[in-house]
Amino acid sequence: MLKISKSNNIFKIKLIIIHISIFALLTLGIFVFKNLTIAIRATDFNAGRIIDDEIFYNKNSMNTQQIQNFLDNQIGSCDTWGTQPANEWGRKDITRAEYSRKNWGINPPYVCLNNYHENPDTKETSYEKGGGYFDGGISAAQIIHDAAQKYDINPQVLLVLLKKESSGPLTNDKWPLKNQYRFAMGYACPDSGPGNTAACENSKAGFYKQVNLAAWQLKYYKDHKNDYRYKIGWNQIQYSPDPACGTKHVNIENIATLSLYIYTPYTPNNEALANYPGTSNCGAYGNRNFFMFFNEWFGSTINNSSMHPGIKKRYEEIGGHNSVIGKENSITFHSNNSIFQRFENGFIIGSEQTGYWENYGKIRNRFAQLGYEQGKMGLPMSGYFNTINNGTGQKYQNGFILGNEKNGYWESTGLIRKKFAQLGYEQGKMGLPTTQEFITIRGGWFQKYQNGFIIGNPTAGYHESSGKIRERWDKIGNEHGILGFPTTDIFKYFNYEKQDFEKGTIIGNNLTGYWDIRGDVFKFYNSLSISDKEKIGSPIEPEYFKNGQWIQKFSNGYISGAGNKYTFKIN
Fold it and tell me: What pTM was computed for the model?
């Protein structure tokens, strides 16, 4: 048991009681619990799915009396007056009270968690009232229950945090000192402080504050999940606070697991998992211990319910155990508005509205990179289908993911997708996408395909860009150059190909070449009748300036002039 020392008549937590940021206290392996009856092994820890959302956010898992009964069972008889020998300090010859008085100048009572009460308004606790209940005091069980209800957090999660974060820990300490309650949840205690101590904020001290702030923080992470460096999907997560220990590529599957990593930005290495409850080189233990403590006390962190009927139906349709996704892991759980289940080689995911569909392989990898169903794609709405060039695709609520082994698998969404559809999808002139969607200047987007690009912005619209016209446009600066974005697709124009842009056009064929018409020459060219445009033909070289005039030669003549005075001549 870890206690406190006296310094300048102010009781302070010893340096050995290092409060680390919430969820990180056991990162340094301070506490080692023995003789645990564990139905699950630490090596069963799934870094991407530590606990299911429906369990983590189940605020009704325990009522106040159930929490109280749990604490009573964990602690048993409390040594309120320190009459038992100080065996944990190697002193069988003196009592705990004598040891405490001699070493820290602290006298009983010692209030155990199951007897602890606090008035959040007056800040009075059982310690000032001689131990246990007092008028106006709220029990620890009630504090935990109320915080769980207020912030939609499973009270079991808060109890596990309390075991993981508190010195003692409070969940089974039979003679805790008052200061052990001050930062019971490790809230507002950074990973390190001056002299390797935790620089805890005194304004956040107190059991009531700690429990409520911890619950609030968990809800905040859920509500602001996109504001942090870790996201749903693939992340590089360190093995320990020391960057030299390396990272693990972790596919974070749900919000609860994401929240745990925001709290404690480390994942246990293989040695830490194999050595539970002990330590390891370059090991971090916070998330490991959360997983094990929860399983020890309350059962699995994973919803092991039977297969959902919609998932079962689709699983059987694609071949069951003999399908590409293999055998089920008997795990079905809810995430926001969807239900999914893990299989050996992938998932089946969906809802009553979208149906239930398999998701695996490289399409699954891209889906994960885009944030799964919570990202830009939404839920799948079809099985896998074959495309040209040995490709594969899948439809989603907000688009498609498709591709092949050579070009990769990429999303197709929004206005780019709309133009892609107008051009015949992958069966049309563009072929399969070969890159993701990229942002460009002036609020535009573009995506590369096997046979060109689709590019645009809301003002100019979205259009194809390919072939010889694309080559010429690139030479003169593409959307960054003088012509700007395309405003039409490529179309037949007499015996030529033509594409219009914001500030000009490109026209040509294999005989004349492909050339741009721009500036005042373009304005004059546009003013000509269709008959005159046909007569003059296509440009055969860029415009040039000579003798005070702009001149551009065409296949059957030329345009020349300056200012507002331009003419054309047919050869």
Answer: 0.53
The per-residue b/e assignment along 141-156, b for 16 or more CB within 10 angstroms, e otherwise, is: bbbbbbbbeebbbbbb
pLDDT in tens, 493-503: 999 999 999 99
Cβ-based neighbour number of residue 222 at 10 Å: 19
Question: What is the chain's Cα-based Rg?
Answer: 34
Q: Judge whether residue 3 has pLDDT over 80.
A: no
Q: What is the DSSP letter of 196?
A: G
Q: What is the pLDDT of residue 244?
A: 95
The Cα-based distances of 275 to 43, 47, 269, 289, 389 in angstroms read: 9, 16, 10, 12, 49
* CA angle 59–56–247, rounded 5-degree value: 155
Domain residue limits, the chain = 4-214+284-298, 490-571
Residue 81: how many CB atoms within 10 A of its CB?
A: 15
| pLDDT on residue 193 | 38
DSSP conformational letter for 385: E
CA 451, chain centre distance (Å): 34
Picking from 164, 408, 399, the residue whose alpha carbon sits closest to that of residue 292 is: 164
Q: What is the mean pLDDT of residues 344-350?
A: 92
* 153 Cβ contact list (under 8 Å, min separation 6): 56, 57, 59, 147, 215, 218, 219
Residue 167 has pLDDT above 90, yes or no: no
Concatenating the DSSP letter of every residue in 317-379 gives HTTGGGSTT-SEEEEEEEETTEEEEEETTEEEEEETTTEEEEEEHHHHHHHHHTTGGGSTT-S
The DSSP letter of residue 515 is E
Query: Which pair of structure tokens corresponds to residue 244?
Result: 């030299």
Ordered strands of the 491-493 beta sheet: 491-493, 496-501, 504-509, 513-518
Measure Cα distances from 422 to 121, 393, 467, 551 in Å. Answer: 66, 18, 18, 38
Two structure tokens written together for 558: 């030329």
Give pLDDT tens digits for 120-157.
Answer: 999 999 998 888 899 999 999 999 999 999 999 999 99
Residue 341 has what pLDDT? 87
Cβ–Cβ < 8 Å for 168, 176: yes
Alpha carbon distance 87, 84 (integer Å): 8
For the ranges 6-10, 442-446, 464-468, the lowest mean pLDDT is seen at: 6-10
Whole-angstrom distance, CA of residue 48 vs CA of residue 261: 10
Q: Which of these, 213, 294, 322, lies nearest to 50 by C-alpha position?
A: 294
Report d(CA 401, CA 295) in Å as an integer: 38
Taking the C-alpha atoms of residue 273 and residue 337, their distance in angstroms, rounded to an integer, is: 33
C-alpha span between 461 and 198 (Å, rounded): 56
pLDDT band at 300 (very low <50, low <70, confident <90, very high): confident
- Number of alpha helices (DSSP H) and beta strands (DSSP E) in the chain: 15, 28
The DSSP line for 452-467 is EEEEEETTTEEEEE-H
- Give Cα separations from 88 to 3, 95, 365, 371 (angstroms): 11, 11, 51, 49
